Amino acid sequence: PGAAPATAARPAGTGAAGATNLTAPPAAPPGSTPAAAQLPAGAMTTTPSGLQYAVLKEGEGPTPPPGAKIQVHWTGWLPDGRVFSDTRKGGVPDEFTLHSRDLIKGWVEALSSMKKGEKRKLHVPNGLAYGPQGYHQVVPPRADLDFEIELVSFTPPGGR
Q1: What is the mean pLDDT of residues 110-132?
Q2: Rounded CA gap, 30 and 128, in Å?
Q3: CA distance 17 to 7
Q4: Can you state the percent helix, strand and coil of the chain, rounding each to 5?
Q5: CB atoms < 10 A from the CB of 138, how many?
Q6: Distance CA 65, CA 133 (A)
Q7: Helix (H, G, I), strand (E, B) or coil at 6
């Protein structure tokens, strides 16, 4: 079976561990996004796809291979600064298969280069998120999203 486009995927965190939660985050400076807030100017790296990230905590070991089962703690912010989900509130990381249709393209790109224990701030342009359709009533159409993600652990395909 072919994979659905990432823009059709559900938001990470709206499954078993994460619950949709629209709360206001700490105030960010006017004109900035939560991912860019509290980072020195120029701290975000931009990839060729347009994904922006800053490493907050270095990880250790190898990066997860395609098909790995990954466990991720994360918080997601809408363009207006509201938190739409936060797995830390429930205390249980979300679990996904890397490169599956459960993940938006921006997450696949970021998580593919992260190591166990690494934490990053992400700014995901709408083309790498949910695109023109958004996601249900949670993410509006064409929304750029900000995340703080931590790769808690991963298990390679086959459980080795």
Answers
A1: 96
A2: 24
A3: 21
A4: 15, 30, 55
A5: 18
A6: 30
A7: helix
Predicted TM-score (pTM) of this structure: 0.78
Residue 95: pLDDT band by 50, 70, 90 thresholds? Answer: very high
Are the C-beta atoms of 147 and 74 separated by less than 8 Å? yes
- Burial of 61 per CB tally in 10 Å (0-12, 13-18, 19+): exposed
**How far apart are alpha carbons 125 and 108 in whole angstroms?**
13
Six token digits for residue 73: 């703690």
Give the pair of three-digit tokens for residue 156: 């390679």
Residue 68 · residue 114 · CB < 8 Å? no
User: In whole angstroms, what is the distance from residue 156 CA to residue 106 CA?
Assistant: 20
